[in-house]
């Protein structure tokens, strides 16, 4: 888990609009999300991990322990139940709600790759360490 700690800023993204559309997120929120360059931060205190997403519009933060379900609010305000696990050298968030999906964080060289999957729709973000 240590390799994920720190602050990461987005360099590129692909297919995010289609992913958000598959979640039935409205046009205005999708447009706002596509134009943002988020920074994500991972930190920990003991077993509690903090994950923060920072944009010019707002900052979202969740605290969790690996393997334990926790409530999380999506971009559109919908609550989902999330479980984060380490799997095959990646950090995987399994999100259960009206439409289940996964978000996977993995390192490829010096880049943090984020893969979003809902059904057959896949989106990606590439981030660099600050």
From TrEMBL:
GO terms for molecular function: lipid binding. InterPro entries: Calycin, Fatty_acid-bd, ILBP, Lipocln_cytosolic_FA-bd_dom. Residues 6-129 form the Lipocalin/cytosolic fatty-acid binding domain. Belongs to the calycin superfamily. Fatty-acid binding protein (FABP) family. This is Fatty acid-binding protein FABP, putative. It comes from Metarhizium acridum (strain CQMa 102).
